[in-house]
Structure formats: structure tokens, C-alpha cells
Amino acid sequence: MKDFNIPSWFDKSTVKHLRLPFSFFLMPVFLFAVSQVSSINWETTAIAFVILHLLVFPSSNGYNSFQDRDTGSIGGLKHPPKVSRNLYRVTLLMDVVAVLSGFFISHIFSLLVFIFILASRAYSYRNVRLKQYPIIGFLTVFIFQGAFVYLMASSAAVSSFSLVNFFTLNNIICMSVASLFIGSVYPLTQIYQHDADKKDGVTSLSYKLGYNGTFVFSGILFSVATLLLYYYFNLRQQQMTLLLLFLILMLPVTVYLSVWFSKVRKNKNKANFENTMTMNLLTSTSMNLYFVVLIFNNYINWF
């Protein structure tokens, strides 16, 4: 019966490995999707936000930690504590709660959550471990943390959702932008883990690209995402003020990445945990702020 003492599962190590604050870095895609909904169902949107950011994403973090058993720095944890079986139990519990809670929104949302969890497990699970392959691992994150999260958020933010009618040109562009944004950041989060990944049998895309190549690749994807965003605003005949605001809010990110790239070119040790987390925080804060402004703009019409 001791194993079924659920509160005891949430020990200090387990809670740390869930990395709840890391959900802030995954928030922009959700907010982007909500910002593009003309009439938001706030109740289902709030439920979806909690399910994804307090259950699904932390569970994914925890399961990845359980499989990796890292001793060096990982995303959101500079000194990760030793994992225990409790971490596995908690991630399983959170997954079940997330899927069941999804039915409060719709059966489609619950199914999408289940599919996301399966993809996340395939990414981390030792006997599958998609993350060990540079291209497949990248595409898994590119698709599921980008376009797929956009789809999940969109399905929850409206009162009536049709999967058949969802894939319009506008939504396909937005899903592409979401994936490109994720894809531009993801290799940079791997840049300080080359040695640790190699010891664990993981060949990351960042390792394949090299330090300089990682920055160039990320810059290209971010530029393509920005161009697509420009095309999307033109397509919807929206004011270019929205794009200008995006460029202004992303200026600190651009400056930071340029300075960081310059430092890494001179000293590879600058591709470290601290600089990566600063980049994550700065990028996520700027994007979250931008998409929150877009959400309010739908009601206040500032632009």
C-alpha cells in the first residue's frame, strides 16, 4: 500500500524534475493560437491552459528526466537531483489526469492530448528514443511543440471546433510559423549539451550543425517565420503595425543572440547553461508579451 501513497510521490526531487517554470518557455505557441481566435471561449481556453502547462508539459519534462537520468545541467535545472521511481509514477498520473480532463473541453482535445503524450514518450523512451536521431528528433519537437500545440490550443479556444474545417490557408500558415519559432529555438537549447548527449548516445541536431551552424540555422528559421508572419498579416489585410510591434519586441532577442554568437565564436565555453537559459527567458518573455497584446487588441482595437 505504501506505493499507492500518492502525496508521497511528489517528493522534492520529483517536483524539481517536472520543471514547472519551464512551461513559460512553451507558452508562446498557445498564446499565438488564442490570439488568432475571433471569439474566445475563455472557460475552455483556461482549462486547456492548465492541462497543457501544468500537466502535459511538466509530465513530458519529468518523463524525459526519468529516461535520461542526467547528472549535468538540463533545461531549467542547473544541478538536477537524482531521479526516483516516484517521478515515473507522477508523470503517469499527470498524463491520465490530463487526458481525462481533456474531455471537459471536447473528445477531440482529449485525443490530441493523448497523441501529444505518445509523441513525447516516443521522443524520450529508451527503447524508441527519437531524440537520439538529429533529424527525426528535431522534427518531433518542430511538429508537436509547434504546429500540434497550435492545433490543440485552437481546438480549445473556440466554442465549436471542426477538425475537418480547421486546415485553412490561414491556419496552415500560423501552424508553420509556430513550428518555425520552436525550430529556431530548439537547437540553441541543445548547444551546451553536446558532450553530455554524446555520452548518452544522443546525436543532437545542434551537435551535427556545430556551434556556429546552430546559430546560423536558428537565425534562418526565425527569419523565415518572420517573413511568413508578414505574409499572413498581408493576407488578412491587417495593419503592418502588428509586424512592426513584433520586430520591436524581438529586438532585444536579436541583439542578445548576435552578441552571444559573437562570444561563442571566440570562446566555445560561452555556449553554456546560463546563456542558454537567458536566451530562453528573453525570447519567451518577448513572444508572450507580443501575443498577449494581440489577444487584447482583438477586443480593444489598439491597432
What do you see in this structure?
- The protein is mainly alpha-helical and 303 residues long.
- It has one domain.
- Helices cover 73% and strands 0% of the residues.
- It is built from 14 helices and no strands.
- The chain has helices at 6-9, 12-18, 27-35, 42-68, 85-102, 107-124, 134-157, 163-166, 169-189, 194-199, 205-235, 241-249, 251-266, 273-300.
- It is globular and about 50 Å long.
- The relative contact order is 0.12.
Task: Please sum up the structure shown.
This protein is mainly α. The protein is built from 14 helices and no strands.
Range of strand content: under 5%
Radius of gyration: 19 Å
Shape: globular
Uncertain segments are: none
| Percent range of helical residues | over 70%
Give the ordered list of helices and strands: HHHHHHHHHHHHHH
Average pLDDT reading: 93
Q: Sheet bearing the most strands, described?
A: none
Number of helices: 14
Helix vs. strand class: mainly alpha
State the separation between the terminal residues, measured CA to CA: 60 Å
Number of domains: 1
The total strand number stands at 0
What tags apply to this protein structure?
303 residues, mainly alpha
Secondary structure elements and pairings:
Elements: H1 6-9, H2 12-18, H3 27-35, H4 42-68, H5 85-102, H6 107-124, H7 134-157, H8 163-166, H9 169-189, H10 194-199, H11 205-235, H12 241-249, H13 251-266, H14 273-300
